[in-house]
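FIELD: query
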Amino acid sequence: MEATGKKSRMLGLAFLLQFVTSFTSGVVVLPAATGVGSFGPLQDIGRTMATIAGNAGLVHLDIVLELFTAAGVIFLGGMLYSAVRKQHEGLALTAFGLYVLEGALVVVTKLALFALLVLGRQFVVAGGAALSESAARMAYEVMSYSLKMANFSFCVGGTIFYALLFRARTVARPLSLWGLVSAQGVFAGVVLGICGVEAPIYLYVLYIPFEFVIAVWILARGANTETVR
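FIELD: result
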């Protein structure tokens, strides 16, 4: 019983860590550091480079937060795999692999952001060098595409995990269903973004509070991490 309680608390903490780091970075720190709300097609790379160069502290903070996010994603994937693997080993392992891929892609986005910071400083010092601007546009595109692929990996992996959570009754079924349904809105937004269409915010609204709510639920009520088939 003690081992089960410990696994339950770790699952709740994994959800909470993922929510806090990703929300703080994506909603608060990164937009302030870059001046870009969403990483779609960019019109004024010069202004973005200057903004990034002038907010080096925020950029470094975002990188640290997102490294914690990457580690948190993998940790969460491992805890979810442990909780639902008895339902379907193959699907649970596939979902965990997708969470690992998401974490790796998050790291790639932060490497590209750091490259943008370096190029932005060169751009400002050189008074708008065309070479720096061209390299920065490439780094920006790498960051944008890696972020989209990370979100795609999350959506597929999350869909599998939430379906298995629903089947396993790891948490209250309405909570698992919330995650499963709301993840599809995010999935639709990600697919639109990959196709070059800016997704409306309402596709994401239902999912945004989910990880926080499920974290609080598990920490307060516990989770059934030992459900068998």
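FIELD: remark
The chain has eight helices and no strands.
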